[in-house]
């Protein structure tokens, strides 16, 4: 039923930071994922085969009897879960969060949203990777921040380029640098150890906070675990993580490990969003973690997704024209394709959908006009037998648009 607002339009009622929004990539990806007839290479969804259904079925009867299970909980998270996870971080990273340095969030996106809300005023400078995760990018832009994108290469964020940017623009230093150092979304690339140390040094020199998104950190395929930025410099790094890829996305949980003054401010902000992360999910995760199955599940997921990565990169090698490039990720869910400069991957979406295949155009991952000839492919949830078929169809669309032959 239409709503009569009288003399005001909806656009006039919307806050300035959302008025004029024309696209919503996250909503589009979620909608595409529900399609039954298209090969969805667009959404970075965990595969249901990696969800710990049996363990959760065993945990639930134990957990549901806890008086805390169905009640409000502390805003920072239940003490038991924080204790278990702080210990796990300590064992894995060599640094354990101190008192007041760890909080539980309702997913990684809430963590990023809380940091944005607490740190950024209109006009503040932010540096991101170019390309970067569009969910974070949209949040920074809606906060009316000035966003600069620094290129990435085979070693991850181009830290020397970031240093040049800081020298050449001597005004107010960026408040934060947002980086995904491990198996980055969208490229699958990882930041080298040397550059990690250089980035930390820059942050200390210029007084910047590094926001380290570790969504895919534990899903490496070669067994290498480079030092996290938070472990290298817990005084200048806020680590934002999610359990969506290592537990289940349906139970919305993540974490932030950061200096105590920042955590205190983030907890105050969370009191005005969802007040507290769901206690039942926290108890289930703690029970799963203390059982020892958490690490077993991650080991299974690494093997599972590595096989998917191999299918995807083999298909790209077989079907993409040789003039096009793609990344072979060392972990995570994604490969990044670069076509010749005259190819418009936004315009090609409809043609690809007509061939029953979807992807995410590269422009969604930049704060400016870059990325028009790039695109992201996800291999995490597509059935094995559909990966090669989807890549073959997409390669044909790209080759036709580029005026190239369709295979290497």
TrEMBL record:
Domain Aminotransferase class I/classII large: 40-394
Transmembrane domains' residue ranges: none
Annotated GO biological process: alpha-amino acid metabolic process
Pfam families with a match to the protein in the record: Aminotran_1_2
Keyword Transferase part of the UniProt annotation: yes
Gene3D superfamilies reported in the protein's UniProt record: Aspartate Aminotransferase, domain 1, Type I PLP-dependent aspartate aminotransferase-like (Major domain)
SUPFAM superfamilies associated with the record: PLP-dependent transferases
Complex and partners: Homodimer.
Protein name, per record: PLP-dependent aminotransferase family protein
Source species of the chain: Streptomyces kasugaensis
């Amino acid at each position: 039923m239409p709503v009569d607002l009288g003399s005001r339009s909806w656009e006039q009622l919307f806050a300035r930071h959302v008025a004029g929004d024309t696209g919503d990539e996250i909503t589009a990806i979620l909608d595409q994922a529900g399609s039954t007839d298209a090969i969805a290479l667009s959404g970075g969804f965990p595969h249901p085969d990696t969800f710990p259904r049996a363990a959760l079925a065993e945990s639930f009867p134990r957990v549901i009897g806890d008086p805390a299970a169905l009640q409000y909980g502390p805003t920072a998270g239940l003490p038991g879960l924080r204790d278990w996870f702080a210990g796990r971080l300590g064992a894995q990273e060599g640094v354990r969060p101190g008192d007041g340095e760890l909080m539980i969030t309702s997913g990684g996106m809430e963590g990023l949203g809380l940091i944005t809300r607490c740190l950024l005023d209109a006009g503040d400078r932010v540096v991101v990777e170019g390309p970067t995760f569009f969910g974070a990018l949209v949040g920074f832009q809606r906060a009316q921040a000035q966003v600069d994108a620094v290129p990435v290469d085979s070693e991850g964020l181009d830290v020397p380029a970031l240093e040049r940017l800081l020298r050449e623009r001597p005004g107010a230093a960026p408040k934060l640098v947002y980086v995904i150092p491990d198996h980055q979304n969208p490229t699958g690339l990882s930041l080298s150890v040397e550059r990690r140390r250089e980035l930390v040094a820059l942050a200390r020199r210029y007084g910047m906070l590094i926001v380290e998104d570790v969504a895919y950190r534990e899903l490496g395929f070669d067994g290498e675990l480079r030092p996290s930025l938070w472990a290298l410099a817990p005084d200048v790094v806020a680590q934002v993580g999610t359990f969506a890829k290592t537990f289940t996305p349906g139970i919305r949980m993540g974490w932030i490990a950061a200096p105590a003054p920042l955590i205190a401010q983030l907890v105050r902000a969370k009191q005005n969003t969802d007040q507290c992360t769901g206690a039942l999910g926290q108890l289930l995760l703690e029970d799963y973690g203390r059982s020892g199955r958490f690490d077993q599940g991650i080991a299974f997921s690494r093997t599972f997704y590595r096989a998917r990565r191999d299918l995807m990169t083999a298909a790209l090698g077989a079907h993409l024209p040789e003039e096009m490039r793609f990344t072979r990720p060392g972990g995570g869910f994604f490969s990044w394709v670069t076509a010749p400069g005259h190819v418009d991957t936004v315009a090609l979406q409809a043609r690809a959908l007509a061939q029953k295949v979807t992807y995410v155009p590269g422009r969604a991952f930049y704060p400016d006009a870059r990325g028009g000839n790039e695109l992201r492919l996800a291999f995490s949830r597509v059935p094995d037998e559909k990966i090669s078929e989807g890549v073959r169809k997409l390669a044909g669309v790209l080759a036709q648009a580029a005026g190239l032959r369709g295979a290497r």
